[in-house]
TrEMBL record:
Gene Ontology MF terms in the entry: catalytic activity; iron-sulfur cluster binding; metal ion binding
Name of this protein: Putative DNA modification/repair radical SAM protein
Organism: Adlercreutzia caecimuris
Residue span of region Disordered: 470-510
Keyword Iron-sulfur: yes
Residue ranges annotated for the Radical SAM core domain, each copy included: 59-182
Amino acid sequence: MNVIEKLEVLADAAKYDVACTSSGVQRSGKKGQLGAAHQAGCCHSFTPDGRCVTLLKVLMTNACVYDCAYCVNRASNAAVPRTAFTPRELADLTIGFYRRNYIEGLFLSSGVAGCPDRTTELMVQALRILREEYGFRGYIHTKTIPGTSLELIDELGRLSDRLSVNLELPSKQSLGLLAPNKSRHSILAPMRHIFESVAEDKESLALAQRRTTVYREKRMARKTRAFAPAGQSTQMIIGATPESDYQILNLSAALYTQLSLKRVFFSAYLPVVADPLLPATDAVQLNREHRLYQADWLLRYYGFNVSEIIDEKNPFLAPDVDPKANWALNHLDFFPVEVNTAPLEALLRVPGIGVRGARLILRARRQSTLGEAELRRLGIAYKRARYFITMNGAYGGSGIDFSRDALHARLSAPIDGGRHGRRADRAVQGQMSLFEAVDAPPVLPEASPANRAALDVAFEAQRRALAQPAAIGAPARAGESERPPILGADTSPAECEGASQEGAPHGNAVCEPLLSVA
Ligand code: SF4
């Protein structure tokens, strides 16, 4: 294969990884070097100044020796052509695209070529060529392979802006069932190491900058790049296993509080390969993914905690209203909120008022008393907010029954007209392909009783497998003996120090989260 043919295969193989937005670094250009990284934005996301920033999103190789049941690159899938970049090819391609202004950075992931360390060495070589030979200062997000040795993660972190380790599935049992070559330890150990390295690096940097007496004799000369200055993120697949939103959000909260993750990405399970252990449904839970992102936003920016959003008795987010509206409907005694006097925390609880809108309200009300016209001018979604606010004593939703049922009916109806309505009209249902036009897959009305029954049927095979622990995590599953030859796999996983030793899940039905809130 020539480089362009490799690119077609390896860019297509990378399209299912969603954990690649937001750079979070500001690094301007420098004479004699190439590129710059600006705050936020990658892979077709928008920077604060409105620019769309693009990353080259590729795998180092799709010739993976692991056999994760849900993955198109799994070793037993003979249907995909296999290939690998050499480090030089990848670096030249990235620089070539950068110079042509096609991209502003690189998102690099990989299948496991032999073992995690061998794969990471290839990635490090490619990044070294980029950073040291070409002097590339653009944004680089690198995916860390579970089980990689900590020394190699150190090298990777010094060459990348962001690192991420995919959690893949929310519980130890599910991981053992669908990703038998990975384990809780092989995923969490690199995440902890990245967390500690970023923290240590920030401490030393802060000390040096403050010029304390600690460094008086010998001022620290920063010879190495900062360690992953944009932090780390992760990704979880939603809907491939039966864990509830309650479990997923608790796990996310633990990741934010214990490992300081910048983002937890949710990826609705897409049925791309067949496996008896995968859910017996073709439906893609995009609405559920969307609700999880909304809940995640509440955790990170709105001061909510998980128990305010969801509880064990109702472990799935409401499919018809967003989590903030659902909280408001369950706490009508908190409302109405007076927009001219309420503190920021109270404004942030009002459906239709976002973080930016709440801050604008605080600023605007110093100048004048706010009414409907002013709120609309500030970009508040007034049609939603009005049921929950007063404006100088006047209730915004007068004439409407202030009851849970009546408000629920209004909040679950599609937004009609206005700026927010026009944006909703433009939203396309279904999973968009990055590369070609496809028919949108069906969307399940998640969490409805009917759908819960359908999900019970879908996960029947997984439940049966969990009841027979000896069968889980065993190396030989259907099709494994017919694996295609692996390119670049010059080390078997068993020979590799970093290969998973854990993996067989417990045979009980209770899913053990990968990480719990301390
Ligand atoms: S390690 Fe698993 S998820 Fe990653 S490429 Fe290989 S089979 Fe796919």
